[in-house]
Amino acid sequence: MSVSSMSAPATSSVSTTRWTQLGLGLIAMMSISSPQYVWTLFTKPLTDTLHAPLSAIQLTLTILIVLQTWLSPAQGYLVDKFGPKLLIACGCLLSGLGWVTAAYATSLTSLYLTYGLLCGAGTGIVYIGIVGLMVRWFPDRRGFATGMVAAGYGFGAIATTFPIDAMLKSAGYQHTLVVFGIILGLVGALAALLMRSPRSDDVLPPPAVATSLRDVAPKDMLKTKVFWLMFVMMTMMSTGGLMVISQFATFSRAFGVADFMVWGLAALPLALTVDRITNGLTRPFFGWVSDQIGRENTMAIAFLFEALGVAAMVYFRSDALLFVILSAVVFFGWGEIFSLFPSTLTDTFGTKNATTNYGFLYMAQGVGSVLGAPVAAYIAEKTGSWLPVFTIIICMDVITGLLALFVLKPMRKAYTSAA
């Protein structure tokens, strides 16, 4: 085990290069975030146009996230082997193409094959490739750097939520998908073409927290209890978060607050915009905190905070102002999983296979999507209420927070000490 009490600065040129890479990664991440985070605005027009139930429409998001995550081990391997530039650029273009072709979908099947398939494959290779780059470029600030690019995935929809909402109302969802699909695909691809991996002559600072000196191959990582505990924890947190994200517009309308005016704006698009801000801020913030006080301690704080936020949002669900504020709190307590889990995994299993290794853990997000969007809609349809869904979310948050502190922490310490 290597514990560094102080981080030697990188050389000036390398320092500039790695921060430039971080900025490019942030732009590319922002360009692929809308297919997931603005999806909720498209569910109603798609339901009306395709004459399909909400649960069937929501399967589109499930397909997107399943492909985004379950293909990630193979995508991570390709990035590790051939480099990030062209693969990430192609991923951005594929994501944009998914939106453009979805505009012409006339059936559920065609919607699944365009929005679900193309956006899923495209966003997956971009996401996993950029996270894999950052854990290599920033060994001294691994939590913060992965949090920053993951924040791009949360922040990206801030710039698009209101324009997309306005264009949906003025020009319809088909025109909106085409215009934004082209813009976002091209912006991401241009940023990707300037990316590169660290070279052997790039002098980087040492890690700032305890890490294992051993680089573990994916097949060996999959044999460890530590990995599977992290997989279960990330699955539970992903499930709860995706239940909220995918159904936000629907349960906002069910609670009767979606169209109330808050600070001169409709509560639903305002909440979605504020939520993207907090969902973005939480990733570098808790990543930075984990660089200071440890990964598992930070997980426990964040996950239990999330449980309290969800409970409060449900309790005050009839008050539009409090609903907007507390929804922002909920998203602040959820998005940090995308900085804490990849940094924890790399600390445990090394950097050599970091992209591929995280690809396997990122599959937990896919499992969460299967359990999140359609199951939440099904439960609400069968019970006639969203309260059972939120009860499940709160329980999973509490369990995961306790697992981080009392199970993962000692287990990972024993593993890294042995390694």
Could you describe the 3D structure shown?
The protein contains 18 helices and 2 strands. The protein has 419 residues and is mainly α. A two-stranded antiparallel ribbon has the order 1-2. The protein starts with 11 loop residues before the first helix and ends with a helix. Residues 1-10 have low confidence and may be disordered. The longest helix has 32 residues, at 387-418.
Rg over CA atoms: 20 Å
Strand content: under 5%
Largest sheet: 2 strands, antiparallel
Structural class: mainly alpha
What's the helical proportion of residues? over 70%
N-C termini distance: 7 Å
Strand/helix succession: HHHHHHHHHHHHEEHHHHHH
Shape: globular
Number of strands: 2
Short description:
The protein is mostly helical.
Index terms:
2 strands, disordered N terminus, 419 residues, two-stranded antiparallel ribbon, mainly alpha
What topology emerges from the helices and strands here?
Layout: H1 12-31, H2 34-37, H3 39-50, H4 54-70, H5 72-82, H6 85-102, H7 108-137, H8 142-155, H9 158-171, H10 173-192, H11 218-221, H12 225-254, E1 261-262, E2 265-266, H13 267-293, H14 295-315, H15 320-332, H16 337-349, H17 354-383, H18 387-418
Antiparallel strand pairs: 1-2
